[in-house]
Amino acid sequence: MKSTKLSHTILHQLSSYQNDVEMELKNILNWWMQNSTNKSFDVFYGEVDALNVSLNKKPIGLVMISRMLWTFSASYNHSKNISYLQFADSVFKYLNNYFIDTKHGGMYWSVTEAGLPHNDKKQIYGLAFAIYGLTEYFKATSNNKALSLANELYAIIELHSFDKIYGGYIEAFNNDWTSISDVRLSDKDSNEKKSMNTHLHILEAYSLLYTVNNANSLKKSIQLLLNNFKSYIIDEKTFHNKLFFDELWNCKSTIISFGHDIEAAWLLQEAAIRINDLSLMQFYQNAAIKIANTIAKFQDIDGAIWYEYDATNLILNKEKHWWPQAESMVGFFNAYEQTNDVHYLNYSVSSWNYIKNNLIDQKYGEWFWGYDSKGILLQKEKAGFWKCPYHNSRACIEISKRITQLVN
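Above: the chain's sequence. Below: its structure in token form.
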């Protein structure tokens, strides 16, 4: 951020914001420690419903466990609260015991409540989050097993998923790394070989891994990913992210995801900074501001950003889900740091105010999934395959850290 003296009004606003997110971070983590596992921390539940009822016959997803590992490791690194580290230890043990495919390499997409493979496909998105969680856990513990696993997964992704002809990464494979007909991450995604979402989270994982393993090969992988975004994924006119592609990078989707846009804004810039590539740093600082400007147009008067826009059918999906609001907090705050423009700070605070007033469940804890386009609360799980303490805890940590850096 450009050097400037903060006014008393801004300092007060920042202090209040920081106090809020620190308190909420503790609430989120306490909820997960109390509701996502049994008291001995050796069984994790595949799903917890809106009333905190655990549904232990649901499969446990690699994404959920990996995000939990990242969350509690990062929270320990942020606060040094030993209970978070102890919980991270239990998550690491679970990941290490049940998800590793010792025959073919990599990790299973999901396991049963008994710890047996439930879906043994190799979804690269899931492996990326495993790298992300393992790396943060290594930073918390110096556990060499965690770093070794993260490096192994990096090598496996590069061996099997990296497209040596056209660049980028193929979405998924069978258990033995042969081609799979359905590469979709979820039922709502397009069945295409490459996606913005998977590339963003491979980049996120590689970027964090680079902070503990600054190998030239890893730096090159990050540079290639950033150039993939620059060349193929970010629309040079609108600065929205295109979502799905074939192997040749032909775009196969006209859906615009506002949450993914604002999340990419700050993650792409962060990756460029970590590898200290001046050209990419400049490009992605500029892109982060342009994306924030674009997404601000889709922030409702209550502070929430809408879900997505179908550019083919000209339909604006006005649902308000939890995770785009969390990413808006960070994406807008990041733009404020770059520009000193208080409008971006206000956009970020507005996102947080919407969360406080509408998404935090004051009775049962954690955050609601969100609201439909008519403003009706979505009665969905609090924890599950896709509902994890990642977007919300990370937003709290990022905002607190960035405020500390600004005021000190």
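The first helix runs from residue 8 to 35.
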